[in-house]
Amino acid sequence: MKKYHFIAIGGAVMHNLALALVKKGYQVTGSDDEIYEPSRTRLAKAGILPADQGWYPEKITKDLDGIILGMHARIDNPELIKAQEMGIPVYSFPEFIFNQSQNKKRVVIAGSHGKTSITSMILHVLQDQKVDFDYLVGAQIEGFELMVGLSEAPVIIIEGDEYLTSPIDRTPKFFHYHHDIVLVSGIAWDHFNVFPDFEDYKAQFAKLMDQTPQTGQLIYCEVDPLVKAAAEASSTAGQKTSYQAHPAEIKDGKTFLKTDSGLLEISVFGNHNLQNLQGALEVCVSLGLSKEQFYQSIPSFKGAAKRQEILARGESGILFRDFAHAPSKLKATVNAVKNQFPNRRLIAVQELHTFSSLNKAFLPNYANSMDEADEAVIYLNPHAVAMKKLELMDEETLRNGFKRPDLKLFTSSQALNEYLLNQNYTYTNLLLMSSGNYDNLDLEPIKAKF
C-alpha cells in the first residue's frame, strides 16, 4: 500500500486529491494550520482529518512514498524541511497528477476564463456517454462526488491553472501536466500579484501552446485576439483547431443551440458559455465522440457550482451566484444575464476579494465591465484589504475605475444586506459575483424575496 503525506491538506483541491487517493486504496496522512468546511467534515468522514492543527515534523517518516505539497504551505514549513533533509520525494499537486497519469492521454483545459465550465461540460458528456476517464476540475459539479478522479482509465481531463505550482516552484501549474491535447479559451490579465507584467502573463500561454507535441492538438478560441495571435504564432507541429461561439438563439429567456437536426434547448447561456460549449465539443470530438453524442448529452448539463448558479427563482426574477472576479469574467457574466433577460432590471453585485481586484493599480482593467447592469454595486471588506496590506479604495475611485458614475460601494456586510433586502425584485434579476462570501452574508432572507 502506497503512503503519502499532504502538507496543507485542507485546501479545496488538495483535500479532494487526498480523498481520491483514499478511494484508490492508498494510505493518507496530512497536516494544516487551518481547515474549514466542507474540507473538515469530508476529511473526518474519511478518517484522515489531522488530530491537531499545525505542522508536526514527526509525521514525516522514512516509510512515506512521497509528500504532496500544497500552495498554502510556506517555503520554511518544518514538515517540508524535514522531508527534504530525509530525501523523501516532494510533489506539487500538478506534478503528482502527472505522476499518476503518465500512461494516459492528457487533455488540459487552460485559459484566463471558462476553463472550469469547459472542463465540467466535457466531464458531463463523457460520463453520460459511458466513457472511462480520470479528471481534475476546479469546482464541485453535479454527478461527481469529488473534484479529482484517479483510476486505470486511458484518458484524463485536467483543468489547467496558470497560477503558481507550489512554494518551491514558482512556475504555472499547467506546464507540469505535459498535455497531449490542450485547449486555450482566453487570455485576460489575472493574478496581478504573481504576474505584474501583462507581457509575462501572456508569455505563459504562448509557452504552453508551444509545448503541444507533434502528435498532439492545440484547440483555441479564435474570438479572443490574444489567443488567436499566440496560437497562429506557436511553434508547435501539432494539429491546430480554432473555434468560436456555437450558433444559438434566445427565445423567451431560454437558449437553443442551432444544430443540423434543429434547435436544441440547453440550460447554460451567454456568449461566453456558447464559446465554452463549442470548445468542449471540439475536445469531445478529438476523443472519439461524434457531434450527435455530444448533442445527446449536453442538454442535461446544469453548470458547475457558482457559475451562473440559480439560488432562487420567482415569477419574474432570478437570484444568480457566480464566481466571477476578474474583469473579463465579470463583464461576460453581466452581459450574459442582461442579454438573456433584456426586459428585466439587473442588479449586479461584485465583491472585490482577490489581490488583483483590490489593487488600485489594477483597477483600470475593470473599466466598462458592469455597463450592462441597471444597478452596479461593489462590496469591499476593509479587513480583507488590510490583510493584503493594500489601500481601501473609496467610492469615487471605484466609479472612475469602472467608468460607472452611479456605482454604489458598501464596506459593511450588514449594510449590503439591508440594501438587497429593501429592493423590489419584480421583473428584476440579482447577480451576486465573488470568489469570496461577502463576509458571510446570509443569503437565505434574500432568497426569500424571490
Shape: globular
Low-confidence stretches: none
Average residue-wise pLDDT: 94
Counted by DSSP, the helix tally is 15
**Which structural category do the helix and sheet elements fall into?**
alpha/beta
Across the major sheet, the strand order is 7-6-8-5-11-12-13
Distance from N terminus to C terminus (CA atoms, Å) equals 52 Å
Kindly provide the radius of gyration, computed on alpha-carbon positions and rounded to a whole number of angstroms.
Answer: 22 Å
Number of strands: 22
Strand portion, in percent? Answer: 15-25%
Largest sheet: 7 strands, mixed
What's the helical proportion of residues?
25-40%
Structure overview:
The protein is α/β, with parallel strands linked by helices and 450 residues long. It is 31% helix and 22% strand. The chain has 15 helices and 22 strands. It has helices at 12-23, 39-45, 78-86, 93-100, 115-128, 198-210, 225-233, 271-286, 291-297, 327-340, 355-358, 382-387, 395-402, 413-421, 444-447; strands at residues 3-7, 27-31, 66-69, 90-92, 105-110, 134-136, 148-149, 155-159, 164-166, 169-172, 181-184, 217-221, 239-243, 248-251, 254-259, 262-266, 309-313, 318-322, 345-351, 375-379, 408-410, 428-433. The strands form 5 sheets. The protein has a 7-stranded mixed sheet with strand order 7-6-8-5-11-12-13, sandwiched between helices. Strands 17-18-22-19-20-21 form a 6-stranded mixed sheet. It is globular. The protein starts with a strand and ends with a helix.
